[in-house]
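Hello Y.,

Per our agreement to keep a running log of every chain we model this quarter, I'm adding this entry. I've kept the format consistent with earlier entries: sequence first, then predicted structure.
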Amino acid sequence: MKVDYYFPPQPPLAAIDAARRAAGLGYDGFFSAETRHDPFLPLGFAAQAAPGLDLGTAIAVAFPRSPMVIAQTAWDLAAMSQGRFILGLGTQVRAHMIRRFSGTWEAPAERLREYVHALRAIWSAFQTGERLSFKGDHYSFSLMTPFFDPGPISHPDIPIAIAGVGPGLSRLAGEACDGFHVHPFHTVKYLDEVVIPNVREGARGAGRDAALVDLISTVFVVTGRDEAEMEMMASAVKQQISFYASTPSYRPVLDAHGWDFGDRLNRMSRRGEWEAMAEVIPDEVLAEVAVVAAPERVGEAIRERYSGRLKRVGFYSLAGTLEMADEDWAAIIAATKG
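Predicted structure for the entry above:
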């Protein structure tokens, strides 16, 4: 199991120092997300600052960008990183696509499937020089002149990992992708009963080996050197869990357990009762969603929970919440790898 550093929403130049520190602590990869800043720019800096790290977007929102735009950016990052780049893509949700990106929202799973195939067609044209010819229901590409063709690279097989929550995108990952970014709001039960079976089903239908699809996720962690620190982190994680649980998109996780507080949290969110929402999350739910352990047990606890399930893990809520010396961080990372 590899352990990855997730770059916080800071300006891209901050990735230089962050990547060097991540490499020094023993992280295997460096991932950036599309939140307050572009998700790709930090990876260019990280590729130069820490050449040994795997790099990835976790995730970039696909639909506001043409597959051609993503294909060119990914091609350059794959070349810069000597084949260590993993392209993570997500659909976002309807409200953000329409109101934040001024885009359209139609058949997201089918559109993302076509997006993945379009990327591979474009990359094949880059690598081989053969005529670009892709036609689908949502995207068509038929023009690539030498002036705009970046040409072949040493590592052209760029892994694509999509993100999702429900069974549909899990199946698509198995069918057409190299990885699946499991949302941090998950449980072992949800992985075993929804995500993994659907990845396998998608792979089986496409005649692929499901073992070739890496499951990737960040993990909620509650830890501390004393009761006060544990309580502080538990409260912060419950707050985040309550936010996700209030959103209908993540309702399948609640349904898998028969948890019935989703509607209540949704009503509270509409009233702006954000802080009070954490009180709705009981300790038993916290224990299902988060790894709760003393610092010296965190790595072992993550391995016990996720070995055989996840190929790559990151810490969703540990960094920035609990101040620890670098040697303590390095010990947790090493213990998580096993």
